[in-house]
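[09:14] KT: can someone run the structure on this one? pasting the chain below
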Amino acid sequence: MTGIYGVLNLAGNALLTQQKAISVTGNNIANVNTPGYSRQKLMLENKTPVQSSVGPMGTGVEAVSVERVYDRFLGVQINSESESLGRWETRKDGLELAEVIFDESGDFGLNKSLGDFWGAWQNLTNDPSGYNERMVLQVRSEVMTGTFNRIYSDLEKAQEGFDARIEGAVEEINRLSQQIAEFNQKIVEVEATGYSANDYRDQRDLALKKLAGLIDINSFEDASGKVTVSTGTGQTLVESNSSRNLTTQVNGFGFKDIAWVQPDGMTVNITGNISNGKLKGWLEARDVDIRGYKGQLDTLAETLMDRVNSLHQLGYGLDGSTLNDFLTLAPAGGNFAEAIQVNPDISNNLDLIAASSTSAGIPGNNDQAIAIANLQHALSMNGNSSTFDDFYNSLVSKVGGDVQNANAYFNHQSDMVVQLENRRESISGVSLDEEMINLIKFQTAYNAAAKLITTADELLQTVLDMV
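[09:31] RB: done, structure tokens below
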């Protein structure tokens, strides 16, 4: 139709189309700060032309669809880098906590208490029968053993904290998996009608990104728009509109392992197969870093206890007693660093401290006290290649080095994710300047279409006046 009614119809379509474009632009502006939102764009096409006496004539414009501006490959990259970022973020936090536990900057570190312990034995050599010297030795020995106990306990508490976070992460993974399955269903239902489920896709992508930050995943979208999600080693988390759960199981150390629940209800332990995400970082901090530090601290306590006791048993106290241990384990038991203490018998009777190497030398002989004091500089650790102080200093240095290494990886991954997010923002993000320009453009087109309707109305009125 190329007459006046054709012009009126063309103008009406143009008016409605520009109104839709203004609505889409307004939605972009409203979601400028919405996490995960992808800018939307109204796709416009020429309507089918009609034949006229002068050839084909256009019949205006029509809105075909609303599409989101999105780079799928970039989304996959962001998810992949988010996995590594999550891993190093949590591991860095765990190592920084360990660094605080091993803090030697004040007067409460193990280095200081070890030095005071050896110094007390050295002072005892000056007056092996002196009550004050023995009292100082007993007090400083208890401070040293208490420092061992405190550091070990703090490391265990750190592990327990990571364990609680691991359990919380598993619950979050299950929640996100269920969300993604629900979004799959909604997307299929909407797009089956011929429309694009842009908002649901944005929300699903955001859930996928959060999931990738927790555990390494693989995702694949089929032709119907549904996403299948699996762990890095192939255990399915989301399939179509259903999800499968992860769970936790207590391992031999009393901490939580991660297990995948099979369709038949049986579980598969996947802890050793998790390679990225916050779960990996917490597992490494708990089972590798902190466990390793505890092991070295325990080795130090065990060797110290063994060497001191071996010499002390050969000596004689002021009461002539011998074969007494200077250090023992608490009755409740436990690892050496966890349970080491001064022998309660010695704490109750300082005469049992064996400073003399012979019973005949009591009270003036100090040979055994000298031998124990000299342990400070003896090569007792690492296969008799380092002293106690060297061994502990190397442990503290290792903690510091591990923190620096984790910080370097975290900073690198942070830069990678920021760069990719900036790239995504340049493609999919909302620019208020651009949207304001579009708003003016569509508003002007809307006004022009309205003017065209007015013109067509005036033409009709002229024709009617001619009747």
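[09:33] KT: thanks! The first helix runs from residue 4 to 30.
[09:34] RB: yep, looked fine to me
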